[in-house]
Each structure stands twice: as structure tokens, then as C-alpha cells.
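Support request, please re-run this one:
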Amino acid sequence: MKYFKYITLTAIGLFFYSCEDEFLNPLPDSAIVVDAFFSSDDDVKAGIIGVYDAIQGVNVNTESNTTRFNRGVQFEFMVTEMRSDNTRTATLEGSRADFHRYRVDPINIQSEDYYQSMYEIIFRANNILNYIGVADENNQAAYTAEAKFLRAFAYFNLVRLYGDIPLVTQVVGPTESELLFTRVDVATVYQQIVADLQEAVDNLDNSFKSRASKAAAQGILAQVYLTQPSPDYPAAQQLCEAIINSGEFSLQDDFHDVFYDELNDEIIFAIQYEFGNVQESQGFSAEFTATIRQGRQDGLNIVNDNLVADFVQYGGNRTEVSYITYPSYTEVTKYLPEGSDLSSFPPTYGLSPGNAGNDVIVLRYADVLLMHAEAILAGGDQSSNGSAIESYMKVRERAGFDPVADRPSTLTKEALLVERRVELAFENKRFFDLLRFGVADAVLSAHATENGYTDYNARKLLLPIPAREINLSNGLLTQNPGY
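Re-run finished. Output below.
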């Protein structure tokens, strides 16, 4: 049984202080504005667990109507992976197919849900911070740090996908709508993210992998430093080295075990799900199947041929764990639902593939090693630094490459980017990597041209602000250019 399952119901009870519709449909216009009845340390702790419940989101098998439900990170592959050159949908039907063709518009349901879901995380975290004073004095610093970590997690996702966004750091009332709809510049949002994560680094330990931890804060803060408008490469390197030198994390010997031996030594932070429990499971694993469809859709996150080509050359033993090729489609296999057997055709996907328990891995040690190398490159095209090459090779060696024959004398940005692509494929990293490495427009423009995606242009690197939010703001909230 996953840790936070025991007290989720308590957390849910605390958040049902307004109507059920507001709980399931987190909107900036319906921000948390009323008393949550937190009166004890246990209440605050349960409220913090409720923030993870918002990240986890609602499985489509619980509520099949996709309009205005908090799916949490269960739609994240659409707003990230499918907007990179990695994946696409199996068909061109419906709003999901708009992501890989760069046709997402301001009324796209999935983008709207993701935007709302991230703000639900933020609103819940802000509400916890409003009641920290009722917690035991010895726990207040850690609870504050955890809430701020979760707020930073959501803001980091939002700012990279939507650009300038409303920055809400307090519980707001119905007369304070200006706070909810005034877009703040990217640099200011990053300042808040850095401050929140630094507090988490200073006040958390490594007790958890499925909750905020010191190492998770260090790793995400390192990524923030690499990503922010003015990167801080030395600070990112220092944070990665703190995780590496802690001795608390290591690569799994078998790449397969990273994904199917959950919360293993490589995992730093993961969002947990529980197989077979419709209230605590996820449905995206089933949607990745197309040849023998197991989900509600015809097949999502289908692997592109150019990624397969990179796996053939650079994947090593990661290839067979990452995808499988059928006559019709190449499908993701990093998140096979429990009971799956692909050894024969047609394959089987267990008794309840739509209620899968596969965790969403937010951060793992291999990612930190590759970020360490990236920080040492410091935005340059190449480096002969031994520490950078060593971190890069640790990941490569696990994939079966020879530590001597395959060790480069110089590590290039291109080699590091392709290594991140095959190591972290389908973990919702590729789109952000392209942005961070400064090659997103070049790579995606070529990809779009090759595949006939005529709607692509550089403005599509940002998603549109949902039209519903603009309408609710009475024009205060502005739209991104090009929409």
C-alpha cells in the first residue's frame, strides 16, 4: 500500500469545504477562499497529502468526461512529450491529436485541464501555508518547506509551458481577482520558484521518495538554474554534486527495474499510483496502446520513427525496455500496466490496464548525472572536463556501452542531448530539454517540415492561455502571441 493512501480520505475531507464541483474543477476564479478547518498538526499534515492528490489527478476511468476535471500530471505527456519530436497520436481525431501537429488552440480541453490542475496544486499549497501556525512548532519548518516545494513544482511546469503567468502566493478572496489574472513576467516567476525550492533544500531531509525531499528540491532547483532566463551553471553543478556525493542514490543495474521496482535506489521523486484502485490509479498507461487498444483512445504517445532511429544507434539495452514495434505502431513500454505480457501476439495487458499503478517518475539519479554534465558544459558546445564525461558515461555504461572504447575525449552538447533523449524517453523531458539547450525551434521546425505539420512556428513553443480563464478575467488576462 502506498504511503499516502492511508490518509488521502482525510485530506479529501478537509478539501471538501466547498462544493464538490470546485474540488474537481480547480479554477483561478474559484480559488481557495474559505476556512479549511485546519486546527491541528494532523489536519495540516493531511492537507499536505491532499496536495499530492491534486498532482496525482483523477483517472479517466473515474470520470470519463474530460471537460473540467483535475487530471493532474496524467495529461502531462500531451503538453510535453507529444509536442516534442518523440511521439504522436495514432489517429488525427480529437483535440489530443492537436498537440503533435502544433494545432492546440485556446479552447483545447487537455491544455485547459493541465493549466487548472497546476493552479489547484498552487492553491492547495497556499492554503496549507495559511494554516502552518496550527501545526506543532517542531513541524512547522518542514511543513512550510514541503508546501513551497509543491508550489514551486507546479509553477515550474506552468512557466515553461505558458510563459508569463499569474503568480499567486497567498490565499485570495473573491474581491482580489486581479491577483488571479495578472500575468507576471517569467523572470519574476523564476525568482519565486528558486526561493521556494531553496527553503525546501534547507528544511527537508531524504525520508521520502513519494513526497518532497531535500534531494528532490536540490535536483529540481538544479534544473531551474539550468532553465531560467539567465542560467546559473555553477549553482546547478553544485546541487547535482551534492546529490551525487550524498551516496543516497545510485543507478539500478537493470534498466527495467527503474520502472518496475518502484521507489528503487535510483528514484529521487515520483508521483505514486495504486493498481486496481479506481480512485488512486492512472489511465495513461492504457492510452499508450494502439495495436491492441486498451484505453479509451485509439492510441496516444505513439513513438516517432526518428526516435526509433536514435535508439538503434544510441539506445543500447534501454531499447527493449522503452518501446515495442508492431506492424501498425511503435508503442511505449516503460509503463506497461500490471499483468502485461508482450511475448506473444496479440499481447495482453492484465486484468485492469485502465486502472494502472505505474508511478510517474519526476526525478531520478540518471537525470541528475546528465544534468551534472550539462552544468559543466555551461551552455557551450563541448567540454573535455573529466567529471562531465564521467557522469555522462555512468549512464551510458548502464546501457551496455564500453567504459573505454565508447568513452569520448570530448563531450558535445549534441551527444548529451541525444543521450538524454534515449535515457529519459517518454518521461516528459524531451520538450523541456530542447528548450533548455536552445535548439527547440531548429529541431521542431525540421521535425514539423519532415512530417507535414504546417501549423508549426516558433510561437507554438508556448501553449495558449486557456480562453476560459481569459473570459473569466473580463479581459485582464492576456493571450500569448500567435493565438
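The longest helix spans residues 140-162. The CA atoms of residues 282 and 396 lie 31 Å apart.
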